[in-house]
Amino acid sequence: MLGIKVSDATVRKYRVRTAKPPSQSWKTFLANHSKKICAIDFFVLPTFRFKLLFCFVVLSHDRRKIIHTAGTTHPTAQRTVQQVTEAFPWDTAPTYLLRDNDGIYGEVYKQRWVSMGITDRKTALRSPWQNPYVERIIGSIRRECFDHIIPINERHASQFLKEYATYYNESRTHLSLNKDSPEGRRKQTPDKGNVIFIPILGGLHHRYECRAA
């Protein structure tokens, strides 16, 4: 646009090259779309009476926040659909929902997804690594909660699931969130008072805060 004729080969020869790619990376692309992605999955827990309890988890990719948890001894397609409906009331449904190929996601499941405006994305068979965030939170729930607690029944397990989800979302810090919690924690300074601890899950975990005497 300046009226100067320059060979393209000359421009390529003397142009300063940068180490970064000309376009955004794949990691940046995923981060830009994380607010529209959620993931769901089941995991199994044995109860005090040696019955199998099927626990359901809904996780948001944006802040790694646990949206919803539930446990039942008799999982059905209708119950699963109801749990997802409770997890996304009104207009809070994500654009994409990741899941595996479990047979419980039947025709009822598909019809509800369409009515909620959700695009269903299935992972490949026997490929849990394609849904890593929800798999990781399931591992955290096991290691930090149910490896130390044996639920007596469905109600008992659901209570611990909800309490752990509250601890995970409000108190537990994450390196990927710059040492913040999924819901965000207000930073406190020593002038606010002495450091106290609040027991969570019967003392299995603690939340530390500065409070005036």
Indicate the topology:
Layout: H1 8-14, H2 26-33, E1 37-46, E2 52-60, E3 65-72, H3 77-87, E4 96-99, H4 107-116, E5 119-122, H5 132-146, H6 154-170, E6 194-200, E7 205-211
Parallel strand pairs: 1-4, 4-5
Antiparallel strand pairs: 1-2, 2-3, 6-7
Helix pairs in contact: 3-4
Structural notes for this entry:
There is one protein chain. This protein is an alpha/beta fold. The chain has a single domain, classed as Ribonuclease H-like superfamily/Ribonuclease H (Nucleotidyltransferase, domain 5, 2-Layer Sandwich), CATH 3.30.420. Helices cover about 30% and strands about 25% of the residues. The protein has a 5-stranded mixed beta sheet, with helices on both faces. Helix 3 runs parallel beside helix 4. About 20% of the residues are buried. The mean pLDDT is about 90.
- How many distinct beta strands? 7
CATH-assigned homologous superfamily: Ribonuclease H-like superfamily/Ribonuclease H
H-E string: HHEEEHEHEHHEE
Give the termini separation.
70 Å
Strand content bin = 15-25%
Average pLDDT, all residues: 89
Number of domains: 1
CATH domain class = Alpha Beta
Total number of helices? 6
Biggest sheet descriptor: 5 strands, mixed
CATH topology: Nucleotidyltransferase, domain 5
- The helical percent reads 25-40%
Radius of gyration: 23 Å
Strand order of the largest sheet: 3-2-1-4-5
Shape category:
globular
CATH architecture: 2-Layer Sandwich
What attributes characterize this protein structure?
two-stranded antiparallel ribbon, 213 residues, alpha/beta, Nucleotidyltransferase, domain 5, single chain, 6 helices
